[in-house]
Design brief:
Elements: H1 5-26, E1 43-45, E2 63-72, H2 80-83, E3 94-103, E4 108-115, H3 124-130, H4 134-140, H5 144-157, E5 160-163, H6 166-179, E6 191-194, H7 195-206, H8 217-226, E7 232-234, H9 238-253
Parallel strand pairs: 1-7, 2-5, 5-6
Antiparallel strand pairs: 2-3, 3-4
Helix pairs in contact: 7-9, 8-9
C-alpha cells in the first residue's frame, strides 16, 4: 500500500502536536486550575492556600535563598522604583520586615516576620495598604536593631537574595541600617534575583498579548499559577503574604 498525501499530512500534524506539547513543558507551566479559580471573583487565601505552603527542610539541607519583604510607614510615589538607585535617595522608616531562608530546593530553614517599632507616624494611606495600625505597632512592635541583626545572620548564610522589586527593598533596608548606625549590608557579595524583573521577562516570552510594564507581585503570581491576571487576594498579614508569594514566584521562575 502506497504512502498517500493524506498520510503525509497526518504525520506532519502529529509531529507538530508533539512539538507544541514539548514547548509547553519547557516553559514549566504549572497552572493550578481549580473550580473556584475559574469564577469571575476567584480569591487566593494566602493564609491557607496549599500552593503557598513551603515544606520544611530536612536535617542536613543547606541555606541558599534569602527571600524578604519590607513595609514602610508611608506610601511611596509610583515612580519611586525609577529613582531608588539614585545616591542619597531618602525613604520612610520601615514598619515591617519578613524573610525566609530557603534551601536550593525551596525548603524552609527559617521564617520570620515582625512589626518594627519607631517614632515615625504611620500614615492612614500606609495602614490602608499594609494593614498595620499605630495600635498594633505599639502592642506588637519589636526592636528594629534586634530584627536587623536576625536578618543579617540569615543574610550571611544565603547565596542568593530574592525580593519583588529588589532594588527598592534594598534601599529601604540600607537607609534603616544607617538610621541605627549599623554596618551596611554587603549586597555585592550575593547573587540577586528580582521576581519583578524576571517575571516581566517571562511574561513577555510566553504571552504575546502582555503589554504591561513590570508586573505587580499579585498579578505575576496569578498568571504563573492560575493563567489569569485578575485573581483577588485575602490576607491578614501583607508582609508575610508578600513573602509567600515571592517564594512561590521564585520556585516557578528560577533556573540555575
Amino acid at each position: 500500500m502506497g504512502f498517500s498525501l493524506i498520510d503525509f499530512f497526518i504525520m506532519i500534524s502529529v509531529v507538530a502536536i508533539i512539538a507544541w506539547f514539548a514547548t509547553r513543558s519547557r516553559h514549566k507551566r504549572k497552572y493550578h486550575i481549580e473550580e473556584r479559580a475559574l469564577l469571575p471573583e476567584a480569591t487566593v487565601f494566602t493564609n491557607s492556600s496549599p500552593l503557598l505552603r513551603i515544606p520544611q527542610a530536612e536535617q542536613g539541607e543547606e541555606p541558599y535563598f534569602l527571600c524578604f519583604d519590607t513595609e514602610t510607614v508611608e506610601l511611596l510615589p509610583k515612580d519611586f522604583s525609577l529613582k531608588c538607585t539614585e545616591e542619597g535617595v531618602s525613604t520612610p522608616p520601615l514598619v515591617a520586615l519578613s524573610f525566609n531562608l530557603l534551601t536550593h530546593e525551596g525548603h524552609s530553614l527559617l521564617t520570620h516576620s515582625s512589626i518594627l517599632r519607631s517614632t515615625a507616624p504611620i500614615t492612614p494611606s500606609a495602614t490602608l495598604f499594609h494593614g498595620i495600625t499605630e495600635e498594633e505597632r505599639a502592642t506588637n512592635g519589636r526592636n528594629p536593631q534586634e530584627e536587623f541583626h536576625a536578618f543579617c545572620q540569615a543574610f550571611q548564610l544565603c547565596r542568593v537574595v530574592v525580593a519583588h522589586n529588589l532594588a527598592s527593598h534594598k534601599v529601604f533596608l540600607d537607609n534603616d541600617f544607617r538610621r541605627y548606625n549599623l554596618d551596611p549590608l554587603p549586597w555585592e557579595e550575593k547573587l540577586s534575583f528580582c521576581t519583578m524583573e524576571e517575571g516581566y521577562r517571562y511574561l513577555k516570552q510566553v504571552d504575546p498579548y502582555y503589554i504591561g510594564a513590570s508586573p505587580s507581585l499579585r498579578l505575576l503570581y496569578s498568571k504563573l499559577y492560575y493563567d489569569r491576571y485578575d485573581m483577588h487576594y485575602s490576607e491578614s498579614n501583607k508582609s508575610m503574604a508578600d513573602l509567600l508569594l515571592v517564594s512561590a514566584c521564585l520556585a516557578f521562575l528560577y533556573n540555575e
